[in-house]
Amino acid sequence: MKILITGAGGQLGSDLVRVLTPRHKLAALTRQELDVGDGAAVDAAVFREQPEIIIHAAAYTDVDGAEREIDRAYRVNSAGTWHMAEAAERIGAKFVYVSTDYVFDGCKGAPYIERDKPNPLSVYGTSKLHGEKFASMLCERHFIVRTSWLYGRGGNNFVAKIVEKARRGAELRLVDDVFGSPTYSYDLAVFIGSLLETEEYGTYHGSNEGVCTRYEFAREIIRVLGIEGVKLRPAKADMFPLPAARPAHSALADTAAGAIGVKPLRPWKEALRHFLLTDLADGREASHA
Ligand SMILES: NC(=O)c1ccc[n+]([C@@H]2O[C@H](COP(=O)([O-])OP(=O)(O)OC[C@H]3O[C@@H](n4cnc5c(N)ncnc54)[C@H](OP(=O)(O)O)[C@@H]3O)[C@@H](O)[C@H]2O)c1
Fold this sequence. Notes:
- The chain is α/β, with parallel strands linked by helices.
- The chain has a domain at 2-155 and 183-210 and 250-266: Rossmann fold.
- The chain has helices at 11-20, 39-49, 65-68, 70-91, 123-138, 158-168, 185-195, 214-225, 256-259, 268-277, 279-288, and strands spanning 2-6, 25-29, 53-56, 94-100, 142-147, 150-151, 172-175, 179-180, 183-184, 202-205, 212-213, 232-235.
- α1 crosses α7 (185-195) and α2 packs parallel to α4.
- NADP nicotinamide-adenine-dinucleotide phosphate binds next to α1, α4 and β4.
- Catalyzes the reduction of dTDP-6-deoxy-L-lyxo-4-hexulose to yield dTDP-L-rhamnose.
- InterPro entries: dTDP_dehydrorham_reduct (IPR005913), NAD(P)-bd_dom_sf (IPR036291), RmlD-like-bd (IPR029903).
- Pathway: Carbohydrate biosynthesis; dTDP-L-rhamnose biosynthesis.
């Protein structure tokens, strides 16, 4: 099938290309090739490529930056999704919109299921929730896939930062009262690849299974890599005030995909181990070459 991917240069976008390349014909467009905030450019690209499926992975993902650059966050995450969903509907394509755990406020205190009511705390979360609404309003054959705490090859993500700091011998203070589900972008790409084979449209949670705090996440990274002598200390979130409010407990539970026979993502520790010992190691060799 012909699939158009937006944000193809990002963590998820590049893993979608990795996962879908052998089986599908791809139009993988980076921000330089398609700015989703430009409605005319979106219409032209979709008309030119005539995809049967659109996976919209492009987003403004700087959660704190969005509090400053409000217009930009809404332009990309809300209006950009409007443009993509409308164009998908016009040519009868299936549409996959990737959303976030930050549409929730964290007050539930337990993993969120697909039917739980969103209530975002930040500009980023609100702009992504508008994206969800536009996807469902404008494109009949839509999938909304919420994910969380994403890391992957080449990304400036939590895992990469912890590895760099731990190897440098820096003291690490990580919050131990914020809970989420770390997710390997490669696993999410496989999940999306399975989902789009179905006609079971609607909202799904696509995170690696399980819950941890940032402190536990960092401890596992250091343990798997066997980095010795790291000074890792637990801390409270209120010791690190940030521009954007974040949900204290935004782990995602998958109840929808399992019900339609799509394989859920593996446990987070298994996925992390795979990433650290394959993708991360490959990247290091390449950067030393
Ligand atoms: N990262 C997380 O922890 C996380 C958590 C939950 C949900 N998500 C969602 O998962 C999806 C994938 O995230 P990710 O981690 O792969 O993000 P990412 O690595 O930041 O990739 C996003 C991509 O979108 C591109 N982009 C930004 N503005 C654009 C525009 N106007 N037009 C077209 N492309 C544009 C970026 O290009 P430039 O780099 O050139 O700006 C980047 O390549 C997003 O929908 C995000 O909201 C992410």
